[in-house]
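Project standup — Tuesday

K.O.: blocked on the structure for the chain from last sprint. Re-posting the sequence here as requested.
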Amino acid sequence: MSATVEPVGLREIGRPDHECDVLVVGFGCAGAAAAYEAANAGADVLVLEWAGGPGGASAQSGGELYLGGGTALQKACGFDDTPDQMYAYLEAALGPHPDTAKLRLYCDESVEHFEWLRARGVPFKASLYSTPTWMPPTDDGLMWLGENAWPFTEIAEPVPRGHRPAAPLFAGKVLMDALSEAATGAGAVAHVDTRATALILDDDGRVAGAMARRYGERVAYRARRAVVLTTGGFVDDEEMLGDHAPILLGHGKVSDGRSDGSGIRMAAAVGAATRRMGEVEAALTVPPLLVARGMLVDALGRRFINEDVYPGRFSHQALRHQPGPYWAIIDEEGLELIPEADLWGARPKHVAETLAELEESLGMPPDSLTVTVEVYNRHAARGEDPCFHKNPRWLRPLRPPFAAFDPGDGFWGVGGPSSGISGFTLGGLRTDLDGAVLDHSGAPIPGLYAAGRAAHGIHGEGYVSGTSLGDGTFFGRRAGRAAAGETPG
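H.V.: unblocked you, prediction finished:
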């Protein structure tokens, strides 16, 4: 944990180095959305960014935005959707216990949010990528994110809702280029290489700015109306992780290296409440199409989920409930059915002519994997999966020779974390629907807002790709508008 985050009194700083109406701390997707809306509302906006330019973890992401309810992109690809269907899926997929008030608003206004993104210059191609994946290797604009897998097919009409900027694989930079240019184009001014360290309070206890460090120098920023914290989560702070989400200790981190929880701690130092700090996203570094055509097993050779689900769901299930290491098992015929682009450079760790040999290589109990495959094959021959309900599209008996892929090997020849799992945090500051940060009594802290992973958004105990960029931009917009509407202090 870094230096003190205790607030500084406005009288103590003397003449501030910079003044603005709205100060946004962090220039990722939530910060860019907040800065645009505040500037568009006529506020004088400054954005502080620790790195040398905008983007943050958002720019390094796959770029998916979870949107639906009947967007123009969905319609162009031949799908009908409603906010109610979107809500039904997300309430289940992000549960148990999502924030239903935020989720309801997010779904009801999703079509408008999609149009807002398009108006800010985010490009979307009207085509669908139809197979399970973390990120499509194509520039298709729409993808499935688990909506067409059991049990969600029993809950809502299956409709794809992963909206992606027009770029293959890591499309987050395309998204952030558009949003950051929109923010600065609206008049927001960015101060990069500037790290916020503490909030400033006036005599009435109102948040009135932030202290920062730039090239080792102390810089004081006065915010006449409000401060918006969009500093990200806390996966890069080992002490905070140990205190709140220790399940990720020892695993890899999905971040830009700056998700240090500083915004959460600065707000907590002025009385802010937090919510769901133990919830995390998990990503098992295994190609999703590989396990859809094969199977995913734990250290005891057992399947534990239908492998055609959104890959974050099988990753979360592995991390929370199954003994590692985890293995992707497939046969030669199944492997040959997978396009090279969907393997992400992954190569087998072990190959064997018999399951007994593979069990020995993987350190599994004798007959454990053999029994799993025998049961799977018996039902797959009839197009059934009574244990976990994998879609018949992916079912076929597995026959020798067999291969086992180790998620710890990573992708494209670059080793992943030894556990094969990476993740980030979902908990954060407690906020209302407009991003106002709440204290422990549930009252707004005057002059303070938050969005993105610095705040707790729509999530319960589950996660779906696109819901971070989606709720970050959506509630970032609301926070920016509300901050701009504050009475100057």
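K.O.: great, moving the ticket to review. The longest strand covers residues 217-229. The radius of gyration is 23 Å.
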